[in-house]
Design a protein that fits this description.
The protein has about 200 residues and is mainly beta. About 10% of the residues lie in helices and about 50% in strands. Strands 1-2-3-4-5 form a 5-stranded antiparallel β-sheet, with no helix packed on it. β4 and β5 form a beta hairpin. About 10% of the residues are buried.
Length: about 200
């Protein structure tokens, strides 16, 4: 409250969340079922007959296919998916008493959210070998959206009591607007896992 006649107030809330999204299917692509169905003695990486690590063309160790034909550890590294949410909610009001019983009030409230997702299947990964296109290895997807809503209210109200009687009057106007915009980009075919 600024004075006996003027009151103002505001609220704001800002949040941000980021997450890595392992595959959530109920099969060997999900880390949680995988820990129950993989043999516990299967090595993480492939070895040759002399127990030396087998390396790929980039000099990285080759992951074992396990008894299930899939390595969830390799998928977490070579098939990442990330999501991010940013949100803002806010409001403002001002109330002014012009004369006793007559109030002018304005209120504004809005919200905005942004969602961003990125998913990548690295060329040469185990998953790419199963679901990818051998003529165009690897794939990448980016998508997201922006959503906003806001409202502006202007109000003039009057209230006066005369004994047992009360007079109330209200005049107002309100404007609201909202929108949603999205995008989606997809590509496939990378000559190297280093190119995305």
């Amino acid at each position: 409250q600024i004075s006996d006649k003027l009151k103002i107030g505001t609220t704001t809330n800002v949040s941000r969340s980021r997450s890595d999204e392992p595959r959530d299917l109920n099969n060997v692509q999900n880390p949680f079922p995988a820990m129950y169905v993989y043999n516990p003695y299967t090595p993480v990486y492939e070895h040759d007959g002399d127990r030396n690590l087998i390396l790929d063309n980039n000099g990285d160790p080759v992951y074992s296919l396990t008894n299930q034909g899939f390595s969830v550890l390799e998928a977490l590294e070579k098939n990442p998916e990330k999501e991010e949410y940013n949100r803002f909610i806010g409001s403002f009001f001002a109330d002014y008493e012009i004369i006793e019983g007559l109030h002018a009030e304005t209120k504004m409230a809005g919200s905005y959210s942004r969602y961003v997702r990125e998913s990548y299947t690295q060329p040469g990964s185990i998953l790419d070998g199963y679901i990818g296109d051998p003529t165009a290895p690897g794939s990448k997807q980016d998508n997201g959206d922006d959503t906003y809503d806001w409202t502006w209210l202007n109000k003039l109200s009057y209230s006066k009591s005369f004994g047992l009687n009360t007079i109330n009057a209200l005049v107002f106007n309100e404007y609201s607007e909202g929108g949603w915009h999205s995008y989606r980009l997809e590509s496939k075919g990378y000559s190297s896992p280093l190119l995305t």
